Amino acid sequence: MSGRLSDKVALITGAASGIGLETARRFAQEGATVILADRNAAGLTAALSELQASGDRHLAMAFDVTGESEWVAAIEQVRSRYGRLDILVNNAGFGRFRSIAETTLDEWRATLAVNLDSVFLGTKHALPLLAESGRGAIVNMSSMRGMVAGPTSGAYTAAKAGVRYFTKVTALECAAARNGVRANSVHPGHVETPLTAAAYAKPEVAKEFLSHTPLARFGQPREIADVVLFLASDEASYMTGSEVVVDGGVTAQ
Ligand code: NAD
Questions:
Q1: What per-residue confidence (pLDDT) applies to 114?
Q2: Interatomic CA distance for residues 12 and 129, integer angstroms
């Protein structure tokens, strides 16, 4: 442990799996107290027991990030248990490949709720505690689909593009308020996680995705988590409103 986040309290959503879980591991290794949030209670229990092996300061909170009352209760719990919050990582998300014709209104709304409403709600309700920190940081998980469009992911693309610009508004409002909170977005490309495993296991899908990825391989959760760690740390103290692409070169073309 090199202590890049020592004395910081961090809440990470979607922390039971994939990029969120790897981010929780990296944060804990760097000395943070980690609050793991996810709606997958079983996954959270496993993640918490893994983190607790190196200290019992961490906490797991099972809740649905699309619900406002859930966020209010979660932040109240953080305040009463730790009295502070320094980092919020809005990472929970989900997407399906569907053409516009195939997308139902319910699917559209559910996709925007998980990927975008959650970021608004987390930001709104965590900001007062983050501002008290004096050096708060928000890292929002967007996607390369928030930078460039592709077919068959209209709801997801709209949501992730929304995250990109909502992050900038957050950064500007916090800067104007002089509350010390920075906000940045991360834009992964094709990363191997439980979310993508089934699709990438199909040889034709893997071939197609890797054919437009200059580094010619899928990204690993650790390669995204390390970028989140940097943005959340004081090393990124002059970065706010930025968008960091981690996509093996896809959007460079
Ligand atoms: P994942 O499925 O492995 O993990 C996502 C986690 O979010 C799960 O544990 C899930 O239970 C949780 N979650 C989903 N909806 C929730 C809700 N309503 N309330 C609480 N928790 C909820 O996925 P991942 O690949 O690690 O993705 C993490 C983030 O990265 C997502 O925002 C995703 O859109 C983004 N992303 C992933 C990729 C990729 O290739 N894997 C690429 C670009 C962006």
A1: 98
A2: 15
Residues with CB under 6 A from ligand 1: 13-14, 16-20, 38-40, 43, 64-66, 91-95, 114, 141, 143, 188, 190-191, 193-196
48-94 pLDDT tens trace? 999 999 889 999 999 999 999 999 999 999 999 999 999 999 999 99
Residue nearest to atom 12 of ligand 1 (CA): 14
pLDDT at residue 5 in the model:
98
Domain membership of residue 121 (yes or no) is: yes
Q: Which domain holds residue 66?
A: 9-191+220-245
Q: What six digits make up the tokens of 74? A: 């979660």
2 located within any domain: no
Probe residue for ligand 1, chosen from 38, 109, 245 as the CB with the greatest number of ligand atoms within 8 Å: 38
d(CA 36, CA 47): 8
In this structure, is residue 236 part of a structural domain? yes
Residue having the nearest C-alpha atom to atom 6 of ligand 1? 14
pLDDT of residue 1: 53
Distance 7 CA to ligand 1 centre (A): 27
- pLDDT under 70 in the chain at which residues? 1
Closest CA to 64 of 13, 18, 24, 21: 13
The helix, strand and coil proportions of the chain, stated in percent and rounded to the nearest 5, come to: 50, 15, 35
Global confidence as pTM: 0.98
Domain containing residue 110: CATH number: 3.40.50.720
pLDDT at 228: 99
Number of domain units in the chain: 1
178 alpha carbon to ligand 1 midpoint, in Å?
A: 31
- Is residue 210 domain-resident? no
Distance 18 CA to ligand 1 centre (A): 7
Q: Is 63 in a helix, a strand, or coil? A: coil
